[in-house]
Amino acid sequence: MSKIMKAKKTFEEANFNHEDIRKMNCSIKQIYHKLRGNFSKVSWRRVVCSNAGCPRWTFILTMTAHGKLYTKDRLRKWEIQIDQECVLCRQASETIQHLFFECSYAAELWGNLLVWQGIRRPIYRWAEELA
Q: Which domain of life is it from (predicted)?
């Protein structure tokens, strides 16, 4: 009975009514798309999702987007004693912003990836809210 109640709650969260459920014939795909909602495609999607390293890149991007990537500045916030120097350039503290966008190595990599994908624009900064 508890599984039925949980399923009912999930359908209600997705704004399904009894008639919607009856018509859909229990399509998991329809339920998933209704729960997920609509998302517009972003211009950089090809760089992240259409490559040979997709699972790894997607995982790192997700961790980074949620501010959960284990950068040295994040480890310091947990009071772990570690040097703060960027492992790539040794010129600044290792933060998400620096590691992915400000580091000379990262900037060159992003520039090459954008050119490779035919995207002609400057490299943007990461969201400041992650800091």
A: Eukaryota
Candidates 107, 104, 90, 98; CA nearest to 126 is 98
Give dist(CA 61, CA 68) in Å, integer: 10
Residue-wise burial string across 69-90, b where 16 or more C-beta atoms lie within 10 A, e elsewhere: bebbbbeeeeeeeeeeebeebe
- Residues 50-96 pLDDT 10s: 666 667 777 887 788 777 888 888 888 888 888 889 888 999 988 88
How far apart are the C-alpha atoms of 99 and 63, rounded to whole Å?
14
Beta bridge partners of 93: 85
Instruction: Indicate if the pLDDT at residue 129 is higher than 60.
Output: no
With tokens 């990537």, the residue in question is: 69
Tokens 């969201």 sit at which residue?
127
Distances (CA, A) of 87 to 8, 16, 50, 80, 96: 50, 50, 27, 17, 12
Structure tokens at 106: 């990262």
Range in 37-41, 50-54, 57-61, 118-122 the model is least confident about: 50-54
